[in-house]
Amino acid sequence: MEIWINPACSKCRSAISLLDAEGAEYTVRRYLDDVPGADEIRAVLDRLNLEPWDITRTQEADAKELGLKDWAKDASTRERWITALAEHPRLIQRPIITADDGTALVARTEDAVREALSRNKG
């Protein structure tokens, strides 16, 4: 299991604390330092079963600069969104946990972190 975090994010710190409390084995990826490329973002979106706009932090300054709120959310603009996430990783919702069963979750709640843990007990 891998968790994409921003250490400054309280939701990320909470998720890590819960994983530690449960004795989970996981790898931390500080995605602002180790930025995922477009292919990795596509793979995670497939695992999440979400679209790029579903994991975009639209209130970030970068989002406002790019004018994301005015971007269409459809198949024709999907790659544009993915490129924006790869070029501006602060826009990626966090934390994201990739589970050992091939799925992934945006783990912003304790329940979501527990769901990721349950998917790893396989």
TrEMBL record:
Q: Does the keyword Oxidoreductase apply?
A: yes
What Gene Ontology molecular function terms does this protein carry?
arsenate reductase (glutaredoxin) activity
Enumerate the UniProt keywords alphabetically: Oxidoreductase
InterPro entries for this protein: Arsenate_reductase, Arsenate_reductase-like, Thioredoxin-like_sf
* Family the entry assigns: Belongs to the ArsC family.
User: What is this protein called in UniProt?
Assistant: Arsenate reductase
Traced from the root, the source organism's taxonomic lineage reads:
Bacteria, Bacillati, Actinomycetota, Actinomycetes, Kitasatosporales
